[in-house]
Amino acid sequence: MDEVPETVRWLTSLGVVFFGPMPEPPHSKPRMHNILPNSRAYIDALWREARRLGVQAMVNARSGGC
Q: Of 2, 7, 21, 23, which residue is least crowded by CB atoms under 10 Å?
């Protein structure tokens, strides 16, 4: 829980836009941060950062086995 504020700041620096915090029953205080315009924006921002860092992502790839 201690890392949440820093994580939100980092994601915001990557271009993720949050709306909230919003109420999230049964919690007594608002805590849910929604991503605008939708959750795809979160994936897009992380993908852009991964590419910037030189990460190679492979999807539907088969493992060579061990």
A: 2
